Amino acid sequence: MRVLGLLSGTSHDGIDVTVVDFEESDGALHGTVLHEDSIPYAPELRARLVAALPPAPTTLAEVCELDTLIGQAFAEVAAAASDAVGGVDAVCTHGQTVFHWVADGHALGTLQIGQPAWIAERVGAPVVSDVRIRDITAGGHGAPLVSFLDELLLRGRAGVSAAVNLGGIANMTVVGADGLSAYDIGPANALVDAVVVAEGLNERGYDADAAIARTGAVDEALLATLLDDPYYALPAPKSTGKEHFHLDYVRGHVDRAQHDIAAEDLVRTLTELTVRTVVQDVRAAGIGFLAVSGGGCHNPLIMQGLRDALPGVEVVLADELGAPVDSKEAILFALIGWCTMHGVAAVTPGGTGAREPRILGTITPGAGPLRMPEPVERVRSLTLR
């Protein structure tokens, strides 16, 4: 079955897409990546999305319009990818997260927009969407869903191994003799991106190759106050997002610092925040192997910072596990789509905090009748090529 995976992450800079051809035999799943790409949002659409995100106020009218516009943008990306491989059997879309509701340490709701009916209409294949909420109804955080893929890729390694994804938010999956643990660590690129955009430091909206951070210095006093955030001390499972870590959050800390901080120093300090929070959790878990993915793995200061602070840890890119760093999460959603269509729960116990695994998502039929394949009991292994 050819499944097309789609998402836009917490950096909300564009749409990642991949097509994976899955073959299954007795629970052993083999996936061949046929296509991968990343398409930036149109500038005006991204600007509207950013303006509507918390803590900014918005309206239901704006949410409705963005739901349609993002759905149409996803549909065009999906159609182009489907045409490139000669068609697909199913699509799984994550959509765009605009709010993740966490109260008293528990996820109570989550909202991803990008209306899947536009994708189904444009591509003609059934579309799996709204994949996080079923996990939340079972007591999970709806995140990090990538723990399902990580566990399959890390399974069988000696000692304690982990995969960390450095998107807007950093999340980590830890696999060891005691089982699996997964959670959101804290901000990876979210705060740096917010400052780069607000200060107009470049036109890209992110610190490419750490060019800005390299010109700055870490403000240790500010870093200390940032590290005092109670979120970091919470036990796993836990999840967070831009509802917590956003531009006003940074500005509040800078105001309390009561001294001038150059924009370059602020970017450098926020970059170091990502390094310190990841390092802290890697050390605490006794991890010996760490596979890194997401946009943050292209930041040389982050990668060098991790390697320097973790001399006893093998720090590699996720490519070594067969999952390209820039398309790993799109592969995840292709995998979730395959699982949902085959009746397989795409949640690993310990991965999100859910009481039990659940089959994820809602299915929007394609151009014809919805025909489900024969159910599969579970996925025992995954090989990507």
Which descriptors apply to this entry?
11 helices, 385 residues, eight-stranded mixed sheet
Describe, in plain words, how this protein is organized in 3D.
This protein has 385 residues and is an alpha/beta fold. 34% of the residues lie in helices and 25% in strands. It has helices at 43-52, 60-85, 116-123, 133-137, 147-154, 190-198, 220-227, 247-257, 263-285, 300-309, 328-341, and strands spanning 2-8, 14-25, 28-40, 90-103, 106-113, 127-129, 161-166, 169-176, 179-187, 289-293, 314-317, 362-364, 381-384. A hairpin with a 5-residue loop joins strand 1 and strand 2 (14-25). Helix 6 runs antiparallel to helix 9 (263-285) and helix 9 (263-285) runs parallel beside helix 10 (300-309). It is globular, with a radius of gyration of 20 Å.
Number of strands: 13
Helix fraction, binned, reads 25-40%
How much strand?
Answer: 15-25%
Helices and strands, in order, run as EEEHHEEHEHHEEEHHHHEHEHEE
Q: Biggest β-sheet, characterized?
A: 8 strands, mixed
Spans of at least 5 consecutive residues with low confidence: none
How large, in whole angstroms, is the Cα Rg? 20 Å
Number of helices: 11
Instruction: Give the N-to-C terminal Cα separation.
Output: 15 Å
Give the class from helix and strand content and strand pairing: alpha/beta
If you average the pLDDT, what whole number results? 95
Shape: globular
Question: What's the arrangement of secondary structure elements?
Answer:
Elements: E1 2-8, E2 14-25, E3 28-40, H1 43-52, H2 60-85, E4 90-103, E5 106-113, H3 116-123, E6 127-129, H4 133-137, H5 147-154, E7 161-166, E8 169-176, E9 179-187, H6 190-198, H7 220-227, H8 247-257, H9 263-285, E10 289-293, H10 300-309, E11 314-317, H11 328-341, E12 362-364, E13 381-384
Parallel strand pairs: 1-4, 3-13, 4-6, 7-10, 10-11
Antiparallel strand pairs: 1-2, 2-3, 4-5, 6-12, 7-8, 8-9
Helix pairs in contact: 1-2, 2-3, 6-9, 7-9, 9-10
